[in-house]
Amino acid sequence: MTSRTALITGASGAIGSAIARLLAGEGMSLALHCHRNRDVTEALASELPMPTCVVSSDLADAEAVAAMFGQVEVELGLPQILIHSAGVLRDAFLILMKEESWDECLDVSLKGAFLCTKQALRGMTKAKWGRIVYIGSTAGLTGDVSRGNYSAAKAGLVGLARSVAREVGRGGITANVVCPGVIDSPLASGMSEKRRTELLARIPSGRLGTTNEVASLVRYLVSEDASYVTGAVIPIDGGLSM
User: Residue 190 pLDDT > 80, yes or no?
Assistant: First the structure.
């Protein structure tokens, strides 16, 4: 895997940064995407032992995404691994949800995945090898209160991944979705104690997941060992979505 270049969108997030650290340890060159948190992303890049570049892009803008891939190609070569971890939360009950909150969630998580995949497939089809991993959510499998936009976006990744898997599977390219449940991260630390207790009672494993557990699953899916795994939707949620 040391010859591979991976592009990670949303690399400044808790899961994205954990994936970056783990893949850098495998010897991969990394392109770390951010939209607004450039300082955080550059700090992450400075920690990593392998060649990295930081790229900024609005993932809902086709021209900006194309320019981002062009920068990655110049600095590191065309990525053969795409990990789409970017996402936003704009919580509200559907009856109160603003249209822009709906649009933003789908633009970042789903349209961004489409635009990045379209660009990434150029290098993957040329190399006759590729790995695409979308970071979904158990919310995309079960739905979630106040998160109709987020749940719809993450559910859309399932259909996208399976369509990609069918279209390009014979070209040595895989596409899969990893669906984290409640992960111990800055987002989870903002929960009230009551909410945390309620969630833990619903999780058969009786604890929150870790970002490293999610990253380890992604590492497997982008490896040679996972060459026969495609179109899979894998919850990593302690049994929450059963």
Answer: no
Q: Can you state the percent helix, strand and coil of the chain, rounding each to 5?
A: 50, 15, 30
Side chain identity at 169, as an amino acid letter? G
Nearest of 68, 60, 150 to residue 113 by alpha carbon = 60
CB 79 within 8 A of CB 5: yes
Residues 21, 34, 97, CA angle at the centre, nearest 5°?
115
Q: Sign of torsion, CA 94 158 86 23?
A: positive
Q: Are strands 233-236 and 173-180 parallel, antiparallel or unpaired?
A: parallel
Encode pLDDT of 103-118 as tens digits.
Answer: 999 999 999 999 999 9
Question: For 44, what's the count of Cα atoms within 13 Å in the CB-facing half-sphere?
Answer: 30
Among the ranges given (88-92, 152-156, 216-220), the one the predictor scored with the smallest mean pLDDT? 88-92
How confident is the model over 19-51, as pLDDT tens digits? Answer: 999 999 999 999 999 998 899 999 999 999 888
- How far apart, in whole angstroms, are the C-alpha atoms of residue 186 and residue 114? 28
Q: Catalytic: 150? A: yes
Tell me, what DSSP letter sits at residue 107? I
- This prediction's pTM: 0.96
Report how far residue 229's alpha carbon sits from residue 220's, in angstroms, rounded to the nearest whole number. 10
Spot the catalytic one: 134, 150, 220, 228. Answer: 150
In single-letter form, the type of residue at position 157 comes to: L
Contact between residue 154 and residue 134 where contact means Cβ atoms under 8 Å apart: no
Task: Please write the tens of the pLDDT for every residue from 127-149.
Answer: 999 999 999 999 999 999 999 99
